[in-house]
Design brief:
By secondary structure, the protein is α+β, with helices and mostly antiparallel strands. It contains 4 helices and 3 strands; from the N terminus they run βααββαα. It has a 3-stranded antiparallel β-sheet with strand order 1-3-2.
């Protein structure tokens, strides 16, 4: 099973690799999960870049019908370990540049906020 995580562009892929390896080794020590693991969780490195960050991928091999609790535990541990190591998951950002302006007027600030809110709002389904 392959799992993907999107992290900011400035994240060190080697740090992510070490975190994934540590999680994989620790899970082999968990008697509730170890029997279902054929190959422990490990990094496959950077898979892609997208608009929000760098996509890193990890994988593990499992015995039939054991993947779901293993995957759930990997997600929990990745989230916990990333937080402990200061790695955030990438989020969409809206950046606005106003040519020639160093300080925005209240009207410009309101316009920027409205444009950002519109850009971040998913389109409504057509009925």
């Amino acid at each position: 099973m392959k799992l993907q995580f999107t992290v900011p562009f400035d994240t060190d892929p080697e740090k992510v690799r070490r975190i994934f390896k540590k999680i994989g080794q620790e899970m082999l020590e968990n008697p509730d999960l170890a029997d279902g693991i054929i190959e422990p969780f490990k990094s496959e490195g950077v898979k892609d870049f997208n608009d929000t960050g760098m996509v890193v991928r990890g994988k593990f091999k499992f015995r039939p019908s054991t993947q779901f609790p293993i995957r759930k535990e990997i997600y929990r541990r990745v989230q916990q370990e990333f937080a402990a190591q200061g790695i955030a998951f990438a989020r969409k950002e809206v950046r606005v540049t106003v040519n020639g302006a160093t300080i925005l007027t209240p009207e410009q600030t309101a316009g920027v906020a409205a444009a950002a809110a519109e850009a971040a709002t998913p389109p409504k389904p057509v009925v």
